[in-house]
Amino acid sequence: MPGCIVYGGTFDPVHIGHLALAEFAREESGADRVLLMPARRNPLRAEAGASFEHRLAMLQLAALSAGPHFQVDGREGRREDPSYTVDTLEELRGEVGELFLLVGADQLAQFRHWHRWQRILELAALLVVNRPAWNAPTDAVPHRTLAWPGMELSASWLRDRLAQGKACRHLMPSGVYDFVVKEGLYR
User: Which of 50, 63, 84, 157 has a CA 20 to 30 Å removed from the CA of 15?
Assistant: First the structure.
């Protein structure tokens, strides 16, 4: 069975950087698809600005524009507890072939604080993307580093721009941008 990249996060909102990064990781790893998985409640971050339902809808719109290798999985929305990666990987085991977990170097630095992080490494190969402001620690858990040459674009920066009414159409898939405007998100 071919491999699958699991790319979880808040995606508040999803932007072109998320999609470009996921496609780059898919090609570099040889995986045949990417599962975009929004967290209902990330235990390591502040509460999301948009509801889970809005973030899920934005991801579905983004996946449509990203191509056939992208799918959205909303299973974490059924959980009332925080979204723990290990629980999701346990559920996915056997459903999708080899699992690759995509994280940024900033997340790798705190990976040993993740819930049952050792089990995560048993379930999935860790793909770590270096970002301009972060380099993967050399003494971290076993992982494969992907040298992402791409853009530095953050959802928090994008939320600030949206709140100020600044131009963002070119930073998000068009369907996502239209949804954000229609729903009045981040204002």
Answer: 84
| Rounded (10°) angle between helices 52-66 and 174-183 | 160
Specify whether the CB–CB gap between 25 and 102 falls below 8 A: yes
- pTM score > 0.85 for this model? yes
**DSSP class of 81:** S
Give every strand in the sheet of 144-146, ordered side by side: 70-72, 33-38, 4-9, 99-104, 125-129, 144-146
For the chain, give me the number of helices (H) and strands (E)? 7, 6
Q: Where are the alpha helices (DSSP H) in the chain?
A: 16-29, 52-66, 85-92, 105-108, 117-123, 155-163, 174-183
Listed residue (150, 181, 154) closest to 166, CA to CA = 181
Give pLDDT tens digits for 166-175. 989 999 999 9
Which amino acid makes up residue 1?
Answer: M
Neighbours of 104 (CB within 10 A): 17
Residue type, 186: Y
